[in-house]
Amino acid sequence: MKRQLAKYYKLLVFFVCTTLFVFCTQIVIAQNNYNLATQGKQNVQLIVSSDFVVTMDETQPVIKNGAVAIKDGKIVAIDTQDKIRASYRANRTLLGEGMVLMPGLVNGHSHSAMVLFRGLADDLALEDWLQNYIFPAEGKFVDENFVRVGEQLACWEMIRGGTTTFVDMYFEPDIAAEVIDECGLRAMIAPSSIDFPSPGFQGWDDAFASSVNFLKRWKGKSDRIIPALAPHAPYTVSPEHLTQAIQTARHYDVPLTIHLAETQTEVKDVQQRYNATPVQHLENLGFLDPRVFAAHVVWPNESEIALMAKRGVGVIHNPDSNLKLASGFAPIPAMLKAGIDVGLGTDGAASNNVLDMWNAIRLTALIHKGTTLDPTAVPAKTVLRMATLGSAQALGLADKIGAIKTGLQADLIQVKLKEPHLLPLYDVMSHLVYAADASDVDTVIVNGQVLMHQREMLTVDINKIRREVVSIAEKIKAEFRPAN
User: Fold this and answer.
1) pLDDT 10s digit of each residue in the chain, 484 long?
2) Which of 99, 146, 314, 323 has its CA 20 to 30 A from that of 421?
3) Same domain membership, residue 109 and residue 96
4) How far apart are CA 158 and CA 429, in angstroms?
5) Are 127 and 259 part of one and the same domain?
6) What is the extent of the structural domain holding 89?
């Protein structure tokens, strides 16, 4: 019996040793094969692939079965999936079967924390809406906590819709910057300055001084937070203060944004006060230059359009709020023809009700066909460019964002093409403009960081935001009374 056990034991030892030898040999062979396969490949943090890559780069506008390699937050290569895999190895790879990869949307004009006033005052003219509802509500409710929660809600909504960069023209900029830094988005923060009392300020002097202090603290501090100045509008800011604002922007080399020629009432008011239309009034002050980008610009005349093009002023079109407030139809085809850099924005959710760039994209494509009676007036490719590279150019950020191009920041989104409203597929750009919506956005990447994947939010606590929004809304419901 002992001899048999010894024999079985030897056989068992032989079997185990043989198995381990074969297993180790296979590991060595696999490692050698891997080393051969990856020899000469560059290491990157992330590779993102999709059925289509829409680049907004004229040299290669659409790449089928394409991929992008990302390192240190920047795009290092764009090519077919086979070529990217042959040249790069990544810590993480995001596949994109049935998707399109494109630049993140750039929202060129918003008042982000105003999401907490969503639906508070609807179906009103701009002047009535501002003077009797919004300004009183801001005076009563806007504080640090309001801005923090509102900014969090706005970031959640924008990430879900594929916006990767936005302009925030509002109050409490340090709170906004803190929230944006945490959620991972890119933003140009332009605290609003106005001649009369606003939340936390007595008037222009203290509001503008606070804005200047903010830009001093944040200029160059973050790759994703860009400080800017924002005198509210020609009808709410005196000529002396407008001059102070543009001189300060030039001194500190920062962008400046302003509401401009938004309504016929504004045009008449400025003409009566200064004997000039709003754009010409700014020109008379020496205000117009390439660092300036103006929101709305619904009522410029032909000479003013030519003047803005000459001065290099960017324009942000906000079709949703212009329609809802009955401000009119901005002459976008004429501006584009003149060579103005025109981008898109949502405006605040108090006047638009959603921070949804896909709505702005579709409306822009449709409105200007109807107003010009020309179906070719603003084609799909042009509108998609306005929502990405066009906005980036208007903001002076085209050297950083707006396209999928080597050297630019990796601000990208994947959009699903599998839902019934996106089938069949003949022209991917047409689908993105006329058929896609915010719910089709699958993945959002900013600076190489994944903020949302497969619709799962990765950088914000949505349950906490819901609770805090409800709490603030209950207070507003109980205490708000319009001025009229």
Assistant:
1) 555 545 556 555 555 456 555 555 555 444 544 443 455 799 999 999 999 999 999 888 999 999 999 999 999 999 999 999 999 999 999 999 999 999 999 999 999 999 999 999 999 988 899 899 999 999 999 999 999 999 999 999 999 999 999 999 999 999 999 999 999 999 999 999 999 999 999 999 999 999 999 999 999 999 999 999 999 999 999 999 999 999 999 999 999 999 999 999 999 999 999 999 999 999 999 999 999 999 999 999 999 999 999 999 999 999 999 999 999 999 999 999 999 999 999 999 999 999 999 999 999 999 999 999 999 999 999 999 999 999 999 999 999 999 999 999 999 999 999 999 999 999 999 999 999 999 999 999 999 999 999 999 999 999 999 999 999 999 999 999 888 7
2) 323
3) no
4) 21
5) yes
6) 40-103+413-453
Answer yes or no: do 204 and 89 share one domain: no
Same domain, 118 and 140: yes
Q: Are residues 193 and 132 in the same domain?
A: yes
The 8-class DSSP code of residue 106 comes to: E
Per the CB < 8 A criterion, the answer to whether 259 and 233 are in contact is: yes
Picking from 204, 194, 205, the residue whose alpha carbon sits closest to that of residue 235 is 194
pTM of the complete model beyond 0.85:
yes
Burial of 472 (0-12, 13-18, 19+ CB in 10 A): middle
Cα 384 versus chain centre, distance: 13
Domain with residue 59: its CATH number is: 2.30.40.10
CB 200 within 8 A of CB 465: no
Residues 426 and 312 in one domain: no
Q: Is residue 288 part of a domain?
A: yes
Q: Supply angle C-alpha 66, 72, 104, rounded to 5.
A: 50
**Domain for residue 7, yes or no?**
yes
- Give yes or no: residues 369 and 418 share one domain: no
**Sheet with 186-189, edge to edge strand ranges:** 105-110, 163-168, 186-189, 225-227
In a domain, 475, yes or no: no
Residue stretches of the annotated binding site for Zn(2+): 109, 111, 259, 347
With both helix axes pointing from N to C terminus, report the angle between 462-479 and 144-160 in degrees, rounded to the nearest 10: 130
Residues 97 and 208 in one domain: no
Q: Is residue 406 part of a domain?
A: no
Q: Residue 150 maps to which CATH number?
A: 3.20.20.140
Positions at the binding site: 109, 111, 138, 232, 259, 262, 347
Total domains in the chain come to 3
* Dihedral (CA of 293, 298, 300, 302) sign: positive
Which residues are annotated binding-site positions for substrate?
138, 232, 262, 347
CB atoms inside a 10 Å sphere around CB 193: 26
